[in-house]
Amino acid sequence: MRKAISLFTMVLVALCVYGPSIPSAGYAYEPEMPEQLKKLREQVSK
């Protein structure tokens, strides 16, 4: 049960962090999205 809650909170935090940087929902389906996420994660981890 705790794992499910922690996973859910992680997803919520990720949405809060990455949500504003995604212009629209359609943009998420573009092929280069994973690279964009990698760049964002690198920026956040620095």
Q: What would your notes on this structure say?
A:
The protein has 46 residues and is an all-alpha fold. It has one domain (2-45). Helices cover 65% and strands 0% of the residues. It has two helices and no strands. The longest helix is centred in the N-terminal third of the chain and has 17 residues, at 2-18. The protein is elongated, with a radius of gyration of 12 Å. The mean pLDDT is 70.
Low-confidence runs: none
User: How much β-strand is present in the residues?
Assistant: under 5%
Largest sheet: none
Number of structurally distinct domains: 1
Secondary-structure class: mainly alpha
Distance between the termini: 32 Å
Series of secondary-structure elements, N-terminal to C-terminal: HH
Number of helices: 2
What overall form do the CA principal axes indicate?
elongated
What topology emerges from the helices and strands here?
Layout (H helix, E strand, L loop, with lengths): L1 H17 L14 H13 L1
Key features?
single chain; 0% strand; 65% helix; 46 residues; mainly alpha; 2 helices
Summary, kept brief:
The protein has 46 residues and is mostly helical. The chain is 65% helix and 0% strand. It is built from two helices and no strands.
